[in-house]
Amino acid sequence: MIAKQINEKPASVLGLATGSTPLGTYGKLVEMNKAGAVDFSHVVSFNLDEYCGLSRDNPQSYHYFMMKNLFSHINIDKRNINIPNGAAKNFDKECKRYEKLIADAGGIDLQLLGIGRNGHIGFNEPDTVFHNKTRKVELTADTIDANKRFFEREADVPRQALTMGIGTIMAARKIMLLAGPDKREIIDKLKTEVVSPQLPASILHYHPDCTIIFAKGK
Ligand code: GLP
Question: Is there a catalytic annotation at residue 49?
Answer without folding.
Answer: yes
